[in-house]
Design a protein that fits this description.
Structural class: mainly beta
Strand order of the largest sheet: 5-2-1-10-11
Helix content: under 10%
Number of domains: 1
Shape: globular
Largest sheet: 5 strands, mixed
Number of strands: 11
Order of helices and strands: HEEEEEEEEEHEE
Number of helices: 2
């Protein structure tokens, strides 16, 4: 499978230190989850002031982005499994993504009946991009699917 890389991504890939970013979007959830901050193209209706550090043709932080994906326990590979007994399914791909439940905001977003009638089977997309790239223009869609399972754990920080 080949991907078309934008000029910005080609420039980023030519740098010495490259920081990859994984982005998850779920239909019905108004925020995007990333391993790093998520940047987007600056638009006139974003209320930005161009006399600060904002310049035309440079990415700006997406206010809907959350840097909550933890890479440590997130799948590093996409698995495919042949399941011939399922009608119409030649192979099934899966990915596991761990997201921090910062201040219990994640559990509120995925609470049944809040934004989604049922988060299970909600459509989701996973993108690969890089620090300094604009999403979605510079992002590569690496996975499309639906949420089959999720759970919340509570951790105490000392």
């Amino acid at each position: 499978m080949s991907f078309e890389l934008t000029a910005r991504v080609k420039k980023i890939l030519g740098q010495r230190h490259i920081k990859p970013n994984l982005i998850l979007e779920v239909d019905g959830i108004p925020v995007k989850f990333g391993a790093l901050g998520i940047d987007k193209k600056a638009l006139f209706d974003d209320g930005l002031f161009f006399d600060t550090d904002v310049h035309f043709d440079s990415p700006v932080a997406d206010s809907d982005g959350r840097d909550w994906i933890t890479i440590g326990r997130t799948t590093k590979t996409l698995d495919q499994q042949l399941i011939p007994e399922k009608a119409g399914a030649g192979s099934i791909s899966s990915i596991t993504i761990e997201i921090l439940n910062k201040n219990s905001e994640l559990s509120k977003l995925f609470q049944v009946g809040n934004l989604l009638s049922d988060p299970l089977n909600s459509r989701a997309r996973v993108y690969l991009t890089f620090d300094g790239a604009e999403h979605p223009e510079d992002s590569i869609n690496i996975f499309n699917g639906s949420i089959e399972e999720f759970s919340f754990t509570t951790t105490t920080c000392i």
